[in-house]
Amino acid sequence: MIFSNLHTHCWFCDGHASMEEFLRFAIAKGFDSYGISSHAPLPFDTKWTLKKDDYDDYRREHLRLKEKYADKIQFYVALEIDYLGDFSNAKNEYFKDKTFDYIIGSVHYVDKIPGGRFWNIFGTQEVFQEGLDNIFDGDIKAAMLRYFECEKEMIKLGGIDFIAHSDKLASRASKYEGFSINETWYKNAFGDMLQCVKDHNLKLEINTKSVEEKGTSSPHPQFYPLIREMQIPVVVNTDAHNPDNVDSGLRKTYQLLKQAGFKSINVFYDNKWQETEL
Asked: What is the 3-state secondary structure (H, E, C) of the chain?
């Protein structure tokens, strides 16, 4: 099996160590393939994305480390690009002259709060509640459905290789009375999003960031059999923001995928996407 992790962060965005420190941990953990994937710049100021002025340094540091550790690990570079309609997506002009090994698509914002700013659905609870109340009149189901619609818009637009943490909002929604991932409407909405992934020949990330702490991945393991039945290729990543989390939850998730009938997962290795047997 090719041991791989393609969704990780470092000091260039909201990670908590240098790119080299993450890579050294990956080597120590026995990875064959490792990718750094900073949050792409957004058209407004944030504390957690790569700054446009740092892009050249980001690329130079990757190339330096790729050469330095070439005999120990295959090291790749990517961006995690947020979808905010026309304001930010993988097809924006900014990305057209930039080359990466692969691109991750994700949704961290949904529409605008009246007054102008985008609603960060993974910000503080206060910010979350503000958006929920002002955009959706407190209706968590409506917010969840819009989240999946945004993901489908992103998928249809293209320019990405796989979609990250595709049901992440459910963990926050679960704190609201009446919400459950076992509801028929939720299963249907998630299934529609999966069908969109399949129709556009993309891969789906199994994000293990919360496996050790919360006992679940994104998407939730209960959907593994459906994903397998739909024959959607999966990429298993930790979304590490700390070096000691570069392999967090991976092996446990491999076992759950095998139990769900998966024989292989997708990795980026030898400069191309390929399957590796579980």
From this structure: CCCEECCECCCCCCCCCCHHHHHHHHHHCCCCEEEEEEECCCCCCCCCCCCHHHHHHHHHHHHHHHHHCCCCCEEEEEEEEECCHHHCCCCCHHHCCCCCCEEEEECCEEEECCCCCEEECCCCHHHHHHHHHHHHCCCHHHHHHHHHHHHHHHHHHCCCCEECCCCCHHHHHCCCCCCCCCCHHHHHHHHHHHHHHHHCCCEEEEECCCHHHHCCCECCHHHHHHHHHCCCCEEEECCECCHHHCCCCHHHHHHHHHHCCCCEEEEEECCEEEEEEC
Residue 28: which pLDDT band, with cuts at 50, 70 and 90? Answer: very high
How far is the CA of 42 from the CAs of 39, 76, 90, 131, 236, in angstroms? 9, 22, 11, 19, 26
CA of residue 65 relative to chain centroid, distance = 23
> How many residues are present in the chain?
278
- Kindly report the pTM of this predicted structure: 0.97
**pLDDT per position as a tens digit, 156-171:** 999 999 999 999 999 9
Spatial separation of the C-alpha atoms in residues 126 and 128, rounded to whole Å: 5
Identify whether the C-beta of residue 211 lies closer than 8 Å to the C-beta of residue 253.
yes
pLDDT value for 116: 80
Task: Check if the beta carbon of residue 42 is closer than 8 Å to that of residue 2.
Answer: no
- Architecture per CATH, domain 4-277, reads as Alpha-Beta Barrel (3.20)
